[in-house]
């Protein structure tokens, strides 16, 4: 039976922080080569349809924690706070795996990026699941702790912004279209990367609710990974559309 090794949690969390800084250094000036940014760079050879690629990439983040829970004997059902936190993580990735891909209208996805995305989802799914299922210890009243309640509210707010922004982006295209248009409505009124802003808020909310090093490392990674992409989206819109609203910020309303 698997047991908790705090040293392993510390090592994997620290490595995640290093990977976050690496992502930031790689993509602060040059965006990842997919979507609206691949036209200006060399096109990767192998690609998969967007729906299939997103499903395969996100699936490990849902399956790995579920497998870890199934392997634990006896199953961990207490305390309630720990169970809820694990459910929040799996809830996000249930949506990203089984719902989001079947509505997306994105362009074909590079196999190379899919491979690295899957590796990351396996890695992070293991780290978050392993910590919550085998290592985390919360008091029985954690559900009433200010860290849990405020973090949960942030998580739900961020997830709501993320899902709503994805919906607005989908509505920009008719089936079969691959052209890019100016996003309108919702938080897009203020920021170019409303969907990214929502996901960042979501994972920092999760980190506060979990109050753990693995969750904060993941939130930091999310910021370093999709923060630069939001910045490059903003620059793309400004260069491509002469009528793009100059009042919009790149990622955070009224700041960037």
From TrEMBL:
GO terms for molecular function: 3-oxo-5-alpha-steroid 4-dehydrogenase (NADP+) activity. One of its GO terms (biological process) is androgen biosynthetic process. Residues 1-20 form the signal peptide. It catalyses: a 3-oxo-5alpha-steroid + NADP(+) = a 3-oxo-Delta(4)-steroid + NADPH + H(+); 17beta-hydroxy-5alpha-androstan-3-one + NADP(+) = testosterone + NADPH + H(+); 5alpha-pregnane-3,20-dione + NADP(+) = progesterone + NADPH + H(+). GO terms for cellular component: endoplasmic reticulum membrane. Its EC number is 1.3.1.22. PROSITE patterns: S5A_REDUCTASE. Its main location: endoplasmic reticulum. Residues 108-256 form the 3-oxo-5-alpha-steroid 4-dehydrogenase C-terminal domain. The keyword Lipid metabolism applies. The keyword Zinc does not apply. It is a multi-pass membrane protein. It holds the Pfam family Steroid_dh. Keywords: Differentiation, Endoplasmic reticulum, Lipid metabolism, Membrane, Microsome, NADP, Oxidoreductase, Sexual differentiation, Signal, Transmembrane, Transmembrane helix. The chain crosses the membrane at residues 109-134, 146-165, 203-226. It is found in: Endoplasmic reticulum membrane; Microsome membrane. Converts testosterone (T) into 5-alpha-dihydrotestosterone (DHT) and progesterone or corticosterone into their corresponding 5-alpha-3-oxosteroids. It plays a central role in sexual differentiation and androgen physiology. Belongs to the steroid 5-alpha reductase family. This is 3-oxo-5-alpha-steroid 4-dehydrogenase 2. The gene is Srd5a2.
């Amino acid at each position: 039976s698997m047991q908790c090794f705090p040293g392993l949690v510390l090592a994997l969390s620290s490595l995640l922080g290093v990977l976050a800084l690496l992502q930031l250094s790689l993509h602060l000036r040059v965006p990842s080569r997919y979507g609206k940014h691949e036209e200006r760079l060399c096109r990767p050879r192998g690609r998969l349809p967007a729906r299939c690629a997103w499903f395969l990439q996100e699936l490990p983040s849902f399956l790995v924690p579920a497998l870890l829970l199934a392997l634990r004997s006896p199953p961990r059902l207490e305390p309630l706070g720990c169970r809820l936190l694990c459910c929040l993580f799996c809830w996000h990735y249930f949506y990203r795996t089984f719902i989001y891909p079947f509505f997306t209208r994105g362009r074909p996805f590079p196999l190379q990026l899919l491979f690295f995305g899957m590796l990351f989802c396996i890695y992070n799914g293991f780290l978050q699941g392993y910590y919550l299922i085998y290592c985390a210890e919360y008091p029985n009243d954690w559900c009433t702790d200010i860290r849990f309640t405020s973090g949960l509210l942030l998580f739900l707010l961020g997830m709501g912004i993320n899902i709503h922004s994805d919906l607005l982006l989908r509505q920009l295209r008719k089936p079969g279209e691959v052209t890019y248009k100016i996003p309108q409505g919702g938080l897009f009124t203020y920021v170019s990367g409303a969907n990214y802003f929502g996901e960042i808020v979501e994972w920092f909310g999760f980190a506060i609710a979990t109050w753990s090093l693995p969750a904060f490392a993941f939130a930091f990674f999310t910021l370093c990974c999709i923060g630069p992409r939001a910045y490059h989206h903003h620059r793309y819109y400004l260069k491509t559309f002469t009528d793009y609203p100059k009042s919009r910020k790149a990622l955070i309303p009224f700041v960037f």
